[in-house]
Amino acid sequence: MAFRARGWRPPPPPLLLLLLWVTGQAAPVAGLGLGSDSELQMERRFVPDECPRTVRSGDFVRYHYVGTFPDGQKFDSSYDRDSTFNVFVGKGQLIAGMDQALVGMCVNERRFVKIPPKLAYGSEGVSGVIPPNSVLHFDVLLMDIWNSEDQIQVHTYFKPPSCPRAIQVSDFVRYHYNGTFLDGTLFDSSHNRMKTYDTYVGIGWLIPGMDKGLLGMCVGEKRIITIPPFLAYGEDGDGKDIPGQASLVFDVALLDLHNPKDGISVENKLVPENCERRSQSGDFLRYHYNGTLLDGTFFDSSYSRNRTFDTYIGQGYVIAGMDEGLLGVCIGEKRRIVVPPHLGYGEEGRGNIPGSAVLVFDIHVIDFHNPSDSISITSHYKPPDCSVLSKKGDYLKYHYNASLLDGTLLDSTWNLGKTYNIVLGSGQVVLGMDMGLREMCVGEKRTVIIPPHLGYGEAGVDGEVPGSAVLVFDIELLELVAGLPEGYMFIWNDEVSPNLFEEIDKDGDGEVLLEEFSEYIHAQVASGKGKLAPGFDAEMIVKNMFTNQDRNGDGKVTAEEFKLKDQEAKHDEL
Question: Which of 17, 31, 208, 504 has its CA 20 to 30 A from that of 9?
């Protein structure tokens, strides 16, 4: 409450004529002093501990009272009307005794006042209500006090150490408040609704006193704003909650602040010294973040899920403010991105993000790549003799350390104490690694950086390699065994015997069984006359060779079935 519909202006207060409820005279009030029945007498029955202001002549007051005769008979009570008595003091709108008795009172002070006839209604009295020459007793409780010369009062009782920005006219703010009257009675609270009050400042969306009282506040600041009624809801009040002519007290805590003209703000927390590449539109990023509101309230974190947030940037996959804020980052960089709501989740918000909320993201960039990237190879050492280079089909033995771009170690053959052995080009490693091991000589050391589309892709390896991760391999090639020509699993190093079938068919029965075939091939390899493709299971190669020769699948090879490679292009056996 303390607010009104857009464009509303309180009408100017009409001429205040507060006359007594029956006669047209002003209502009575308590006075000061002690003495006989011919003098004004006052007893201060309760005085609050704090009394920042007392009633002076010319002030406007709101108070409750009970009026009785000396015998205790009640003749009037504001409580019965459920409404305070509202009047200027010292302007002849009250009986003289009450005009005097109210002076010096504090809000929440209770006075018992005894007013003699000469300071009340005298010898005439009030027909049918107050007899002539009546002494009147008033039990008075002061609820409110203000003066037409008052302005708003602002008391800041907490201000954060850092205040990079304060409220200005046309800013949009989100704040919590408790609204009370001067006597402390609560009339409204955003806390009770568990929802901030969200509004523009200085453009007439608020009562004038609130529009002014919010100016200059910092996010996190807490202040008390006291507003006289002519800068609030005036004579009419606001419905049943705020009576007319009421001073209002707002205890305000500012949570959020932005201007519709704001862009994002970026604060670099850590920029690596070596930044060879910065992110661009179209890149794919993996980053960690903590997301908070401007007052520090946490709403989300990738760390709590133990998984980076992975996304393309500059293509609308994330809110506009993050799309912009993630451009130009380095791998390993830490930055704070502050996103106004029109570049975040707007007026509606999302999940536990309130509408019109400014968002603060503290990010740490783990890696990024572009779908057009290929592998990157950096050679750190080559031996003097580096003439024999690895190629498809070669059998390689090498050591490696595998890590992410941020340096997180994934795997190491050195730690395991054994090499990693593969046949190049056979699909035994990811495509990027296969490419990175080519044209490498024994003893060479190189670093191979592999984008995820040439590594383990979006899925990664559960528990080992994160999805969409760029991989870094530090490699040392230890051994290279030359492979066979493409398409061959066995070759002859010498001339092939013209009587090859007969040599294999040792028992001369015209049929070669698997045992005979295997024994012969292994003998040729052992003598150096033949060579099996390195890096594969020798028995499996031999069995496949035999199966290819056994055309009819009867478990034996005849002379008619037996053919060499150049005689049967479809088969790779001999």
Answer: 17
254: Cβ contacts below 8 Å, ≥ 6 apart: 167, 173, 174, 175, 214, 217, 218, 219, 220, 221, 222, 295
pLDDT tens for residues 245-288?
A: 999 999 999 999 999 999 999 999 999 998 989 999 999 999 99
Residue range 411-429: mean pLDDT, rounded? 95
Q: Which amino acid is at 192?
A: N
**Cα–Cα–Cα angle for 412, 371, 322, nearest 5°?**
100
Cα–Cα distance between 25 and 94 in angstroms, integer? 7
Whether 535 and 422 have beta carbons less than 8 Å apart is answered as yes
**The whole model's pTM is what?**
0.76
- C-alpha distance across the termini of the chain, in Å: 94
Strand ranges, E, within 196-283: 197-200, 222-227, 248-258, 265-270
Q: Going by CATH, does the domain composed of 153-258 fall within 3.40.220.10?
A: no
Residue-by-residue DSSP string for 251-262: EEEEEEEE-TT-
CA dist 248 and 432 (Å) reads 71
Question: In angstroms, rounded to a whole number, what is the distance separating the alpha carbons of residues 248 and 179?
Answer: 7
Contact 28, 135 (CB under 8 A): no
Question: Is 152 labeled as catalytic in the residue annotation?
Answer: no
CA R_g for the chain: 46
For the question of residue 299 being annotated catalytic, the response is yes
Tell me how far apart the alpha carbons of residues 572 and 181 are, in angstroms, rounded to a whole number.
97
Token representation of residue 330: 């380095």
Which of 345, 473, 501, 546 is labelled catalytic?
345
pLDDT tens per residue, range 109-130: 999 999 999 999 999 999 999 9
CA-to-CA distance for 210 and 187, rounded, in angstroms?
16
Residue among 236, 300, 362, 411 flagged as catalytic: 300
Which token pair is 528? 């150096």
Given the residues 3, 175, 181, 289, the one annotated as active site: 289
Domain at 41-146: CATH code = 3.10.50.40
Would residue 197 show up in a list of annotated catalytic residues for this protein?
A: no
Each residue's pLDDT tens digit, 302-340: 999 999 999 999 999 999 999 999 999 999 999 999 999
Is residue 361 part of the annotated active site? The answer reads yes
Which residues make beta-bridge pairs with 334?
270, 364
Beta bridge partners of 172: 200, 258
Secondary structure of residue 315 in the 3-state scheme: coil
Rounded distance between C-alpha atoms, residue 84 and residue 436, angstroms: 88
In angstroms, the CA 65 to CA 55 distance is 16
Considering the four listed CATH numbers 1.10.760.10, 1.10.238.10, 1.25.40.10, 3.10.450.50, the one that applies to the domain covering 490-567 is 1.10.238.10
Which of 319, 363, 375, 521 does the annotation list as catalytic? Answer: 319
Q: Helix, strand or coil for residue 189?
A: strand
Residue 150: both structure tokens together: 């008052």
- Taking alpha carbons only, the member of 158, 121, 460 closest to residue 286 is 460
Token pair 């080519």 in the structure block, residue: 438
- Catalytic residue from among 69, 112, 200, 299: 299
CATH for the 376-481 domain, from 3.30.420.10, 3.10.50.40, 3.40.50.2000, 3.40.50.300: 3.10.50.40
